[in-house]
Structures are given as structure tokens and as C-alpha cells.
Specification:
By secondary structure, this protein is mainly alpha-helical. The protein contains seven helices and five strands; from the N terminus they run αββααααααβββ.
Amino acid sequence: MKKLGIYLLIAVVVGMGIYYLNQANAYPVASVNGEFISASYYQKSLELGKAYYEKELVLTQAQQEEFNREEFDIELKRATLSALIHAAIARQELEVLLTKEEATKRVEQRLAEVEEERGSALEEAVKGVFETDIETFREVVLRPEAYKEILEQEVSERGMNYQAWMQAKVLSASVEVFANGYQWKGMDIELVQES
């Protein structure tokens, strides 16, 4: 009887843990070389993508009639997850070429340069187009892009073709996708066809 109580307690604790992780979007949607991409980060990225396309995607009447919102949402989710995986690989590879500390320092310097160049116009554009604050935009858009730019510069300075080098790194990466309906196929996310 004591064992049954212990098992029941464990089951309740595990169940509550799963529930709270789910509520907080703290569960992973993918793993890249053993590092998780959280559902909350994926959701932030997806929301920025949706905000951008809702503001910038102007369709003619004929295009609106042919536009399939469900297909668009599925493709946006696929493309967002793929971009996050590629960004994680770029960050990891830059931290290998340099050190994690040096990579972080260079990225922060690049972000400061971008924000100084664009000033308040950047913040206004972020609020107007992406409907978010500058901190979220920096985390989801600017920082990953800075890692990619610096990585491309480092690889090129070492006399290598960035595209070929990065393709080899992506192909050799250990990627697992936990998001329903998607799978990793060598270089990109694909939809899983239900049978």
C-alpha cells in the first residue's frame, strides 16, 4: 500500500510538472546538437513573422481569393522552425571558431553598432511593423542575424566558401524535431505527410 502511494505521488508530481511546462511553453520544439529550442522562443519568432507578413503582405483582390490562410500558417511555422535551427547551428559554429565569450562580445558589439546607426528609427520600425518591443526584436531577429554575419565573415577570412562550409555543418548537425507535423531532412524542415 505504501508503494502505491509513492507511485501515485510520483505520477501526480510528474503530471503537474508536464502541465506547468506546457503552460509556460518551456518544452522543446527541437534539439540542435543537444541544445533545445524552446516553444516560447519559437512562439516569439512565429508571432514576429506573422506580424510582419500581416503588415507587409498586400494582396490584390484576385490573390486574396486564392490565398489559403491555413497553408500560409503551416508554411510560416515550417520556415520559422527551420530558421531557428539554422540560427542555432550558426551560433554554435561561431562559438567553436572563436570562443563562446569572444563570440558573445563580438555579437554585442555588432548589436550596439546597429542600434547606434539606426537610433530611434529602429525602435519605431520594430513597434510599427513587428508590433513588439526592441528587446524581443533584438533577441529573436538581430542577435541571430549578428551571429550569422560574424560567422560568415570569420569563415570567409579563413579562405573558405561560407555557403559550402555552412552546408556541411548543417548536414552534419544532430537535429531532432519534436513539433508535431514536422521533421528534419538533412538541410531543412519538411512537413510530415499523414497517412
